[in-house]
Write a structure and sequence with these properties.
The structure is a single chain. The N terminus is likely disordered. The chain is elongated, with a radius of gyration of 27 Å. It is α+β, with helices and mostly antiparallel strands and 504 residues long. The protein has an 8-stranded mixed β-sheet, with helices on both faces. It has a 5-stranded mixed barrel with strand order 1-2-3-5-4. The longest helix has 23 residues. Helix 7 crosses helix 9 and helix 7 packs across helix 10. It is built from 16 helices and 15 strands. 35% of the residues are buried. The chain binds 4-amino-1,4-dioxobutan-2-aminium adenosine-5'-monophosphate (4AD) and magnesium ion.
């Protein structure tokens, strides 16, 4: 069959369902009488002894099987229970929260198999008679691939460890239920955010990781230079000082000169010495930029739509994983989230926000004053004041926002068209603004900040078909914290980086 030869050459590693959706896959399926022959399944899965089955597919019944067909499951042992006549194993391969129950006769060699071992099992899937699972695997053969000494493993069988405890083991915590759920959700949320922008006509731009500008102007930069000292005269690798990006915004602004809607989604770096539960030195930011904007409302609509669509997607696609957090980590979070999704987000001006804070009877560590940035305690109070729902705070003082924010030209309280989205339990989730597209105003602002030379190109993009535009950035880790109710940002990223810690 030429199709099969082609697949072999291309070393196809895709699930039969996905193959069946391609043109050549449909033809192959027709040629085979609408049923994948075992030889094809084995070829697709790169195995000579039976198709490899994902635990998640086995449990959900997604894998179409022939009766009596021998399948192969690979994964890690989550539990071993020996009875006189029978041995039960639970195997997990990361494809689902639930593990697959393996039922085996004691004549198979289990002597070296323990909690944590990596195994490969051949057998037949059957309907389970137990209430807890619909399917189980009757094992014909069990092979130990990697042994594990459960005494040395920091996680104990059937024990629920706290997030703080498992955080100490960044090289092992993916083996716990809670962290593997988190990583599945994170991966799904990443894809859902890309889908959101693709479905809404945005073009994805790879903005650079290394850059020579400080977008936020806060000086919280990690400088990039080769590790080995060069003997050349010029002491900078790129001839100019260069840094890890703090934001892709300025590069997105360049792209709004040709595309109406663009976005980027990648790692961002801040050398801020903040040891808080919502700051990291390396975090992921989703940034969108829109041309032809008329007001901040255009930006706020995208923020709200992005938040609601993506959250809804995660709740419906990963119900078991999400439930683990809502049940054991943050009881009540499910209901809070439902309220956030149901109601329109509220809007407060910065001036109104200060007024609310000053009138409150709460004792704040930092006194709320017009002209000062909002502190986390202020943000949390404002969210509560608005009924524990997300709230946009708009029109911040001119003097506390970066050079790019658009001047509202108002007096006596001089503000810019900037917006922060505050959410329950976290505070600031998104920051954005309209950008100053008027050349004269931008030039005088850059002068004030002593920046004109560094930003000639930024001025120049205002000279060739400049349009009103604006955008925002959403902190991906804070977004996950908000959905799942996770206290500490270090628990929503695979390998957290923060002051004094860069493990692995
Ligand atoms: O408010 P920020 O600093 O805004 C910008 O960088 C804009 N240039 C974005 C834009 O308009 N394109 O950062 C945006 C968001 C914050 O609201 C916060 O959620 C997150 O990024 N963030 C952090 N998350 C984790 N750790 C940190 N150190 C963070 N700093 C900001
Ligand atoms: Mg901000």
């Amino acid at each position: 069959m030429p199709w099969i030869r082609r697949m072999r050459v291309e070393r196809v590693r895709v699930a039969p369902a996905a193959v069946g959706e391609t043109m050549w896959g449909r033809k192959l399926l027709r040629d085979c009488g609408d049923r994948w022959p075992k030889s094809v399944l084995c070829l697709l899965h790169g195995c000579s002894r039976g198709p490899r089955l994902k635990v998640g597919d086995a449990l959900s019944g997604a894998a179409s099987r022939q009766e009596q067909e021998v399948v192969r499951v690979q994964g890690w042992v989550r539990s071993v229970r020996e009875q006189k006549e029978i041995i039960f194993l639970h195997i997990n391969d990361g494809s689902s929260l639930e593990s697959l129950q393996i039922v085996a006769r004691p004549n198979l060699d289990f002597s070296k198999i323990s909690f944590g071992s990596a195994v490969e099992i051949w057998g037949k899937l059957v309907q389970s008679t137990h209430k807890k699972q619909s399917t189980e695997l009757l094992a014909d053969e069990v092979r130990l691939i990697g042994s594990c000494n459960p005494v040395d493993l920091p996680f104990k069988i059937k024990k629920r460890h706290s997030l703080e405890y498992i955080r100490q083991f960044p090289h092992l915590r993916c083996k716990t239920n809670i962290f593997s759920s988190l990583l599945r959700i994170r991966s799904g949320a990443f894809a859902a955010i890309h889908s959101f922008f693709m479905n809404n006509g945005f073009v994805h731009i790879h903005t650079p990781i290394i850059t020579s500008n400080d977008c936020e102007g806060a000086g919280e930069l990690f400088q990039v230079e080769p590790a080995s000292k060069s003997t050349e005269k010029c002491h900078h690798f790129f001839d100019v000082p260069s840094f890890l990006t703090v934001s892709g915004q300025l590069h997105l602004e360049v792209m709004t000169g040709a595309f109406t809607q663009v976005y980027t989604f990648g790692p961002t770096f801040r050398a801020e010495n903040s040891q808080t539960r919502r700051h990291l030195a390396e975090f992921y930011m989703v940034e969108a930029e829109l041309a032809f904007t008329e007001s901040l409302k255009d930006i706020m609509e995208v923020m709200e739509h992005l938040f609601k669509t993506t959250t809804f997607h995660i709740l419906s696609e990963y119900p078991e994983d999400v439930e683990l957090f809502h049940k054991y980590v943050a009881p009540g979070q499910k209901e809070r989230l439902e309220e956030m999704l149901k109601n329109p987000f509220q809007v407060l001006s910065y001036t109104e926000a200060i007024d609310v804070l000053q009138r409150s009877t709460e004792t704040f560590k930092f006194e709320p004053k017009w002209g000062c940035d909002l502190q986390t305690e202020h943000e949390n109070y404002l969210v509560k004041h608005c009924g524990n729902t997300p709230v946009f705070v708009i029109n911040y003082p001119y003097d506390i926002k970066p050079f790019y924010a658009r001047d509202n030209q108002d007096r006596p309280q001089h503000t810019v068209a900037a917006v922060d989205l505050l959410v329950p339990g976290i505070g600031e989730l998104c920051g954005g603004s309209l950008r100053e597209e008027r050349l004269d105003l931008l030039q005088s602002r850059l002068k004030q900040h002593d920046l004109p030379n560094a930003y000639r190109w930024y001025e120049e993009i205002r000279q060739f078909g400049s349009v009103p535009h604006g955008g925002f950035g959403l902190g991906f880790e804070r977004f996950l914290q908000c959905i799942l109710g996770i206290e500490n940002i270090k628990d929503v990223i695979p390998f957290p980086r923060f002051p004094h810690s860069c493990l692995l």
